[in-house]
């Protein structure tokens, strides 16, 4: 039966190793070196014995406690009045006593002690040591530990640094912990009673419902004094850990630690996902804002064109009435007779005059109306640019650059957003970003005025430049056509042809005016939108990259979570 149990345990260990391998790959992809090292260490220790990690402050008597617990008659862990444990000492089973220095901060001690067949003991430097690297190295052992033995001075177990370290052990890693009040021989009975109750109460406040507190004296144990307190501790170990239970407990603890790490990743991914969704909303909002502002600007163009056409219609209607009167039979006869005496121009000169007057009226009045309307359009486009600028500045930041797992991602995002703000500021300040060849052509004489305006402020000048461009070519067309028609003029039917030609040319000019202005201005607005969008290229690349990375990370996390859950559930059966 034991062989079946061993076979099952080995299979579960192998399965856990594969899962933790996937977890390690996940931490590497995340790019968190410390967590990757923690997971790698956890994977390497799956097949090691159940591990006791002895922690506590300097001078709490940890080394003496370890020596007394092992009961070898030797000073395995060095103890002295001054802090002596300047390295982590991992004490494991070996056929003979020998020591191996792994690195300047870690030493392995092999001992032929029977209890070490089932457990390993790690003696650590004090949690309040000032020696460089000691606490961080101690913390590296905590995730892979199976039982934390927290040693306090019996006379004073309330030092804040010790309890802060306990919060790290229990709060961050949910590690099983027992509490030892060492050096009880140096405390009074009343101090022991009060301090035992005090440690238990503090442990309960930190979330341990039934804390195990042992009061011991390593000195008395080593001297063979009765009631040293070690019997109760050994009974606890025998009842809860050794006797064949340690390997399975070790497996369960490793599963729990892997779940804790994967849970932290899940929390980090959730925040990272929230940031991604916020950035997507921000980007979509930019797009929607541009859609709205472009639509409003286009409406402003439509209104501008409509007002210009009303002016155009009034001017051409007046000229058409003048033409009809002048082309009446009475008018032509009168003009023909009187012109012989030089007081009234003949029909041809009169017709040329109408065309010139029409050209002058259209140029003056349309340009004036155009300049009036351009102010509103310039304000609308300026509002579009300013709205986008404000939204960039108010982009929501959820993932902070001090995040435990994703600080580098947060920092990269922060840099991209800062670059976006800077780039948009430069964009707004450059006049050339608001000019367009299709709008202004080669109007070089505008340069001084544009330079004086500067950036988006030059919009009014740029748009007003439309009034200096040829608005339409209708007058020349009318004059040429009417001249040809008039040359052969002799009948009433020909008079009708002149009127029809005028109406046709006026309608054509009206359509040309509307189409030309609408095309120029709406094309200009589209170009501006494209230029604004171009500022977001790096941000868009970040979103695309982040979406792919999140899908991979979240998928791997879910797989590991499901597999750890299945393996954990199997251990409960």
Describe this structure in words.
The chain starts with a helix and ends with a helix. Helix 6 links the parallel strand 7 and strand 8 (213-215). The chain contains 18 helices and eight strands. It has helices spanning 2-30, 33-44, 62-70, 134-141, 160-173, 189-205, 218-223, 230-240, 246-326, 329-338, 347-393, 407-429, 437-440, 447-453, 459-464, 474-487, 492-534, 537-572, and strands spanning 50-56, 88-93, 98-103, 106-111, 119-123, 147-153, 177-182, 213-215. The protein folds into two domains: 49-244, P-loop containing nucleotide triphosphate hydrolases (Rossmann fold, 3-Layer(aba) Sandwich), CATH 3.40.50; 268-562, no CATH class. The longest helix has 81 residues, at 246-326.
Structural class: alpha/beta
Detail the poorly predicted runs.
Answer: 80-85, 337-341
Order of strands, widest sheet:
3-4-2-5-1-6-7-8
Series of secondary-structure elements, N-terminal to C-terminal? HHEHEEEEHEHEHEHHHHHHHHHHHH
